[in-house]
């Protein structure tokens, strides 16, 4: 069993993310729709990742903990997908290849099972990424 693997990440909008965004980025629907990584079932099996368990995803510019699920869309082995949003934004490279748009797809990430970690809320991730201190952070 391989404990971690480098995969090719794609991010894009999804129906699930669009519907959930209408409820707000702090809603349970948005959390459930966007804090997941869709993976090929064989990759999950090879890495010992159980469906609905936390994984750490690391790119050249950041990391995030999300919940692993078997891909709703067809994903070939070696490819994974996080729906665009707060969780994906933690790992999207800032380079733009002179387009002015970050590289949302086709970048390498290392995925590692992380059953001991918790998937954090959109609010916590945003506060941390902009250096804000939260008064209630100790209680969350």
TrEMBL record:
Annotated SUPFAM superfamilies: ADC-like
GO molecular function: molybdopterin cofactor binding; oxidoreductase activity
InterPro entries noted in UniProt: Asp_de-COase-like_dom_sf (IPR009010), MoPterin_dinucl-bd_dom (IPR006657)
Pfam name, any one: Molydop_binding
Domain Molybdopterin dinucleotide-binding: 8-106
Protein name as catalogued: Molybdopterin dinucleotide-binding protein
